[in-house]
């Protein structure tokens, strides 16, 4: 760089691009660099494989897939396990906030919700990639994988508990269904006494007999 009359501009900001979200001694911060990623692929690709061209290509692609999977778990972590763990932590903090809704518990809950959303987005990205791969390999057949994807979507869309008009949490399919029906029945059902028509008397009639 000196020979070319150039200088390093460096950078401003956090030197780390990723952390595992833990606290204390369990916290891991690192800077993910594309050079590590490229070096990994290059080292795997350059390994000698015996066979014809088609066999060599197939084996190298499989080796790269295994290597990237291992690299991802070591650098980022197990996404699916992290989704379950952060979801449990978020539910625990929700219960704490319901018991004591102070600023500290609210901030902890917001952080847990953000962390859960981050891992959930990563999981959805992985599922979309796998879905495209499976779709290309198997078409639109009712494979076991697509059944699992549908089950996962149904699980996330399922309502496990709701809060009634008195502020009490209700759990269970029958109880939540009954509470929801009662809520909307009361919401859309009005008695005749609720309609106060005396206010219409102040409107001047525009049509005469």
TrEMBL record:
It comes from the Eukaryota. This is Uncharacterized protein LOC104231465. It comes from Nicotiana sylvestris. The gene is LOC104231465.
